[in-house]
Write a sequence for this structure.
């Protein structure tokens, strides 16, 4: 590539060209100003020659031709180092103008992306201005005037004298005066004649005079303003570049006709080609010879070196005038620069090289840097050794920086050229770093440089967008510092295109917040607002920053003074997964909390109550189809006048509290008859969404919405319930949520978010498609029951028996009928009779003396499958609520959920929905109270009698209980005390933590008749009671057969159903107790609400392992005279069959003494007997005393080795035993000597014969067995 | 307002260009002195960037007093350095890329894992070895995080255990 065609090449061909100093009289200027141009401006378009075609011969003998050439014209007053302040002001103006012109700031559209970004065009202009701030430095020669153009107007008096005066005045630039350059420069004399003033004769006369005085060649005359009317139109571009602001009414150069212009052109051409170029040629040649003579050659070099060494101790003065124009160093520099300007780069380079070492040795750093800079440029123009070029530029740049602030500007210029050089070679990345390095203390310049750097990153291959964004932001910050808000916004806008959607939170917040702030500063609050929206959810920021963001946001909103409607307001955050819609179709809920129970649970409860699903559905679908279009079939049903509740969580991500007002749902209700709603359902696309949401607010006449105001504290989440109550029939759609944050209205589209988060749906509506979740068919208002249970406690002790009242209310004018009710835990809650309504515990349970039974309603209660049917005649109207008694018994400790479903049908048959259900849910916490356990063991001495041990532990921590009564359920048992009551309960009560055991005697009074038994188990009418209360108390015995107790007892029985449930050898106990309040007189029982506790123990087995029990009866001591004969003793064995089957029992006597074999067999029996024991740590001692059977047998007495007695009679007897019957077998033993005998060496074999197998299938019950005999001690004494 | 918040990015840049100026040399000396007085308060910001250029872990691990605006400046620098990482990551087989970028007196060191997750550390220039060790140990921790079946690669690391470990490593090596 030809370096001259590159941007840098063009720039150099423009900037490094011969300077012509122009000296003119005021009248010259005046004449030119008629055209709106200064003299230089008038000439400048003609100073650039693209094809001058002048032969040049410099050092070599071979001439070459110059094509492009340019002269720079300057007034003498401008040829000096520019004033820094002025220059700065000028640059600032450039930037401000550029900022004002840039209208991208005012458009609020987001930038399209970094691809479309292109660097602003004013950068080039700015850079040029920046380069110009360091022109006319004394350390470089290419800005030194090559020639001097003296211009005098023909109107001036004594023009010749004026010419002389012009050059001799003290106004000449300091460069010439202080010796930095040769004052003897080429002079050219020009006479300007204004054709409008007078004819050119006078001027011609002056010209001849001039030619006589200054020489023929150096004098010229220029006639201007030849056009009289001033209407000459020129091509715009002619002067456009030099005049930045053109007032529209003035045509530039309007008095210059075509002749004038060609005259100017000729003048400049001649000046260049005939005077300046030859002059420079000449000078180059002369200087070259001079340099060759003094510096070239080995001898000169040695001499030079030696000479420079000698100067080493001279002070280091970088800017001091060490080198006058006549010094050899200056001359070499001039030679180099002239050669450069004449494009003889080889010559220039060799001279620069020569001088650079000299300057370095002299430590003249600024000059050294200048020369290095030129070397770099020369290398570039020669297009060779790029590395050298860059090295020189860098060297120069660093050297400029090294000399301090004075070199800063030069460094900037050097950097800019260096950058251009790098850009030419596509080294944009390196160029960007140089831009970064030339950032100065001047923030404005830095801003521009940083912005240019950012564009370099954008242009580099591959694009470096991250760096681009970062440098734009840096640049924006600098712009902001200099109050160039518009530029700051422009850079940040570009940066946003990079950072859009970034997850680097701090970056995003910084960019958006600042640009918003600046927009607000410019008064563009709308745009500021949209940008601030992005930073609102800045949970990662510190609290102060969050407050700042929020405050700024609210300020902006306030300043706009209008209400914004924002679709994507991020504050507060709505948690869509928390969405829960509660509505009531045929399912209604007594309390809002009920709705949170799982639907499947309700379904299982309602299963038996509601009309079978298929028929019900077809029924109401038939009805529905008349009213509703088919597409709503799958929609939810709701009832007009009944609120739909939407629970949703609002989260505040910030640490500062925010207050939110007017939170409400956005709904859409279309009447059932209108078909126009199809347009609504399809129009939910992004653009229309907003408008649509806004529209929806208006039609509130069809439904009422709740509005909620609340304040969210820092990091708080609040669950808010919003309701919509439709007023008319139709189809209702919940579209979204709106809320107000200050005066910003936020919208949230529920539908579209639900569509996005199908998986996050609540379980309740899982069967519906998500889209239908928020669509409802509103049907006509129908009755709805409200239900409430009075006095249901939240906590109760186990066993607590209470009387409760269920109240059902109907708000609507229509009545409901056919009520049914089902309770999930009948063990805890049972339904009473209508008559029970006003009863009170314990009065209602007291035993009636006259035995008048009111167990008739037990059958009238229509309880089928646990569903209770209310009497047919019950209807609930608006005026009269229904009360119904319920019984509560806290059966077992724990947290109990009670679910109650009440089914009812509409009295009005025409309604769409035929029935509804009321769901109620209560939680009951049951605390442990008395722990009762029973152990029953057969009485060893008597058949059909049992010893019962009751262990009671009070497990409460505070309560004391008074034990009132123990009842054995069923007519076949009779229970009696073994000890006096006072000895059992010395303190009359069980205090907290106390454990107690007491014994009872239980007697079976069962008959063997099977039919009777069946009746008895059905009627379960009576039982036998033991009063445990102290005598003095007035508490009467309670009837355990009265309805609540008996009902609950049945439930308990069911609960404890065991494998051998049908075994009639089990007994149920009910222990009735009362809490003993210490502050209340225990005897009087006048506590406010007398409470009763019942503890049920079911299926306590009376049987040992076998159904057969026996007793050996006979004398314990006999006297016999063994001298006469052996002794025969008759014994009876009474065997009882307690099973319900026929048993065959065989008694086999063994003559060998009972040994270890038997005793070892006993162990399982013994342990089997202990199975009923509860492991209570307290009762270890009791266990030993009460273990009647086991312990005795386990320790057989040592027996005499020879059996002193024999069983006589049959050795084996078999008897058949009917169920529940006993028989007696006579036994005979022969004793041969006196002593004490253990008659345990016999065994009973029993075998059950099941007549009816119906209930016994799959039982693991023992049907046969062998039982060893138990000890029976007989003492035989020798009678005298 | 803007003076307080977030214009610090600009504050330092000029000083770089006048590094050789006598005045700034004096200034630097003074700054150095104050630094030593503060027990060499160091700035260090550690970020793990997922392969999608999303930061998945951020920690300020320096001992310098935390400034309000430092967080976003650090993010800016590290974010900008991603470009350089992109260039360099494919030129070497080493995971530790050393100091790849700098902004004024802050240096960016990067460690690229095989999955192209980048550990970026912004720090005051000092020992390379410590940083290398730091990165290697953090890499091990990161692998442990990856092994967690409940951790979705590329999602934010919220493990508090990881956080405390990283901070402990930073104290040890940086």
């Amino acid at each position: 590539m030809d370096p001259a065609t590159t941007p840098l090449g063009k720039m150099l061909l423009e900037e490094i060209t011969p300077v012509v100093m122009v000296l003119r009289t005021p009248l010259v200027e005046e004449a030119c100003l008629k055209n709106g141009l200064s003299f230089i401006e008038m000439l400048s378009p003609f100073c650039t020659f693209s094809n001058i075609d002048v032969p040049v011969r410099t050092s070599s003998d071979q001439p070459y031709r110059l094509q492009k050439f340019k002269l720079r014209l300057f007034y003498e007053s401008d040829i000096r180092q520019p004033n820094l302040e002025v220059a700065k002001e000028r640059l600032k103006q450039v930037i401000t103008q550029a900022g004002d012109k840039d209208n991208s700031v005012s458009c609020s559209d987001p930038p399209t992306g970094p691809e479309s970004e292109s660097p602003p065009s004013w950068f080039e202009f700015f850079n040029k201005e920046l380069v110009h701030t360091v022109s006319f430095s004394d350390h470089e020669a290419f800005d030194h005037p090559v020639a001097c153009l003296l211009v005098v107007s023909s109107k001036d008096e004594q023009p010749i004298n004026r010419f002389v005066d012009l050059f001799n005045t003290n106004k000449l630039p300091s460069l010439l005066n202080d010796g930095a350059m040769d004052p003897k420069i080429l002079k050219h004399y020009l006479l300007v004649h204004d054709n409008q003033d007078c004819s050119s004769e006078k001027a011609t006369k002056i010209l001849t005079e001039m030619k006589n005085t200054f020489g023929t060649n150096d004098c010229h005359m220029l006639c201007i303003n030849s056009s009289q009317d001033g209407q000459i139109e020129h091509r715009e571009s002619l002067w456009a570049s030099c005049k930045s602001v053109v007032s529209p009414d003035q045509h530039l150069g309007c008095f210059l006709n075509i002749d004038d212009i060609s005259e100017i052109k000729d003048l400049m051409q001649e000046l260049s080609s005939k005077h300046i170029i030859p002059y420079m040629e000449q000078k180059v040649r002369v200087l070259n010879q001079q340099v060759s003579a003094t510096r070239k050659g080995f001898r000169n070099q040695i001499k030079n070196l030696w000479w420079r060494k000698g100067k080493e101790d001279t002070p280091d003065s970088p800017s001091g005038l060490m080198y006058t124009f006549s010094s050899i160093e200056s001359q070499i520099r001039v030679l180099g620069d002239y050669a450069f300007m004449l494009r003889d780069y080889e010559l220039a380079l060799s001279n620069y090289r020569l001088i650079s070492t000299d300057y370095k040795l002299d430590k003249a750093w600024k000059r050294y840097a200048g020369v290095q800079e030129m070397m770099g440029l020369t290398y570039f123009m020669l297009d060779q050794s790029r590395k050298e070029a860059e090295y020189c530029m860098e060297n120069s740049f660093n050297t400029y920086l090294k000399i301090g602030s004075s070199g800063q500007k030069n460094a900037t210029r050097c950097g800019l050229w260096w950058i251009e050089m790098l850009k030419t070679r596509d080294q944009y990345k390196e160029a960007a770093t140089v831009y970064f390095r030339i950032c100065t203390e001047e923030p404005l310049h830095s801003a521009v440089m940083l912005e240019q750097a950012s564009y370099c990153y954008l242009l580099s291959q591959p694009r470096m967008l991250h760096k681009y964004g970062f440098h734009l932001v840096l640049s924006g910050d600098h712009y902001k510092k200099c109050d160039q808000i518009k530029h700051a916004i422009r850079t940040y806008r570009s940066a946003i295109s990079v950072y859009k959607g970034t997850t680097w939170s701090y970056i995003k917040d910084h960019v958006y917040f600042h640009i918003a702030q600046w927009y607000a500063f410019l008064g563009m609050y709308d745009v500021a607002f949209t940008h601030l929206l992005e930073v609102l959810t800045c949970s990662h920021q510190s609290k102060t920053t969050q407050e700042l963001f929020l405050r700024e946001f609210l300020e902006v909103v306030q300043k706009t003074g209008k209400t914004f409607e924002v679709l994507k307001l991020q504050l507060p955050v709505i948690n869509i997964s928390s969405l829960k819609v509660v509505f009531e179709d045929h399912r209604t809920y007594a309390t809002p909390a009920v709705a949170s129970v799982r639907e499947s649970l309700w379904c299982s409860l309602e299963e038996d109550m509601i009309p079978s699903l298929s028929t019900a559905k077809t029924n109401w679908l038939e009805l529905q189809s008349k009213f509703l279009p088919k597409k709503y079939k799958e929609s939810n049903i709701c009832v007009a006048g009944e609120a739909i509740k939407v629970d949703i969580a609002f989260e505040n991500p910030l640490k500062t509290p925010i207050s939110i007002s007017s939170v409400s749902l956005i709904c859409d209700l279309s009447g059932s008859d209108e078909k126009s709603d199809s347009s609504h359902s399809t129009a939910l696309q992004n653009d229309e969404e907003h408008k649509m949401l806004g529209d929806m607010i208006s039609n509130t006449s069809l439904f009422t919405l709740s509005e909620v105001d609340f304040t969210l504290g820092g990091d708080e989440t609040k669950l808010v319930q919003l309701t919509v109550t439709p007023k008319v029939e139709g189809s209702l759609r919940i579209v979204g949520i709106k809320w107000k944050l200050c005066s910003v209205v936020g919208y949230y589209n529920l539908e579209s978010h639900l569509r996005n988060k199908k998986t996050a749906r609540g379980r309740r509506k899982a069967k519906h498609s998500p889209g239908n979740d928020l669509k409802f068919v509103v049907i006509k208002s129908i009755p709805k029951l409200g239900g409430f249970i009075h006095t249901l406690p939240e906590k109760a002790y186990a066993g607590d028996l209470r009387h409760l009242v269920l109240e059902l209310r109907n708000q609507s004018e229509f009545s409901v009928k056919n009520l049914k009710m089902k309770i999930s835990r009948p063990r805890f809650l049972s339904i009473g009779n209508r008559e029970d309504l006003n009863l009170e515990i314990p009065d209602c349970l007291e035993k009636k003396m006259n035995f008048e039974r009111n167990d008739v309603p037990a059958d009238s209660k229509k309880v089928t499958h646990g569903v209770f049917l209310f009497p047919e005649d019950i209807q609930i109207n608006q005026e009269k609520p229904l009360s119904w008694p319920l019984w509560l018994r806290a059966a077992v400790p724990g947290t109990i959920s009670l679910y109650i479903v009440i089914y009812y049908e509409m009295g009005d048959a025409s309604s769409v929905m035929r029935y509804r259900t009321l769901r109620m849910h209560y939680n009951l916490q049951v605390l442990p109270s008395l722990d009762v356990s029973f152990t029953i063991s057969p009485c060893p001495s008597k058949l059909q009698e049992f010893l019962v041990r009751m262990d009671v532990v009070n497990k409460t921590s505070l309560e004391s209980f008074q034990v009132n009564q123990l009842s054995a359920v069923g007519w076949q048992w009779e229970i009696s005390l073994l000890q006096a009551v006072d000895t059992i309960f010395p303190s009359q009560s069980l205090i907290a933590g106390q454990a107690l055991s007491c014994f009872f005697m239980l007697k079976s009074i069962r008959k063997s008749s099977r039919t009777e038994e069946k009746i008895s188990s059905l009627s379960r009418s009576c039982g036998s009671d033991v009063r445990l209360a102290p005598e003095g108390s007035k508490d009467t015995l309670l009837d355990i057969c009265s309805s609540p107790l008996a009902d609950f007892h049945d439930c308990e029985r069911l609960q404890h159903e065991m494998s051998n449930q049908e075994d009639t050898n089990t007994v149920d106990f009910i222990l009735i107790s009362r809490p003993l309040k210490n502050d209340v007189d225990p005897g009087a029982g006048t506590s406010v609400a007398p409470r009763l506790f019942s503890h049920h123990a079911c299926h306590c087995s009376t049987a040992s392992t076998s159904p057969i029990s026996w007793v050996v009866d006979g004398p314990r001591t006999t006297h016999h005279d063994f001298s006469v004969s052996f002794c025969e003793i008759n014994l009876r064995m009474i065997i009882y069959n307690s099973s319900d089957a026929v048993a065959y029992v065989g008694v086999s006597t063994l003559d060998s003494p009972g040994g270890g074999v038997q005793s070892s067999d006993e162990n399982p029996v013994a342990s089997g007997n202990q199975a009923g024991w509860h492991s209570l740590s307290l009762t270890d001692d009791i266990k030993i005393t009460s273990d009647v059977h086991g312990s005795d047998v386990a320790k057989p007495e040592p027996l005499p080795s020879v059996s002193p007695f024999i069983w006589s009679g049959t050795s084996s007897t078999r008897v058949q035993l009917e169920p529940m019957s006993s028989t007696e077998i006579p036994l005979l033993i022969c004793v041969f000597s006196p002593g004490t005998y253990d008659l345990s060496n016999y065994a009973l074999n029993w075998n059950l014969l099941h007549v009816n197998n119906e209930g016994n299938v799959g039982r693991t019950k023992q049907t046969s067995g062998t039982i060893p005999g138990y000890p029976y001690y007989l003492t035989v004494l020798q009678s005298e | 307002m803007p003076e307080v918040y977030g214009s610090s990015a600009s504050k330092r840049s000029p000083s770089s260009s006048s590094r050789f100026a006598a005045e700034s040399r004096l200034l630097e000396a003074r700054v150095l002195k104050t630094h030593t007085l503060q027990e060499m308060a160091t700035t260090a910001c550690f970020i793990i960037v997922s392969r999608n250029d999303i930061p998945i872990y951020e920690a300020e691990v320096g001992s310098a007093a935390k400034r309000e605006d430092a967080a976003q400046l650090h993010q800016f620098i590290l974010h900008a350095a991603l470009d350089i990482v992109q260039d360099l990551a494919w030129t070497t087989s080493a995971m530790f890329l050393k100091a790849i970028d700098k902004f004024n007196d802050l240096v960016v060191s990067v460690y690229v894992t095989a999955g192209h997750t980048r550990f970026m550390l912004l720090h005051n220039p000092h020992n390379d070895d410590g940083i290398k060790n730091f990165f290697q140990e953090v890499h091990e921790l990161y692998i442990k995080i990856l092994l967690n079946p409940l951790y979705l690669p590329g999602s934010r690391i919220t493990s508090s255990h990881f956080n405390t470990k990283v901070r402990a490593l930073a104290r040890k090596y940086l």
The first strand of chain B starts at residue 44 and ends at 49. DSSP finds five helices and five strands in chain B. Chain B has one domain: 43-173. Confidence is low (pLDDT under 50) at residues 1-39 of chain B.
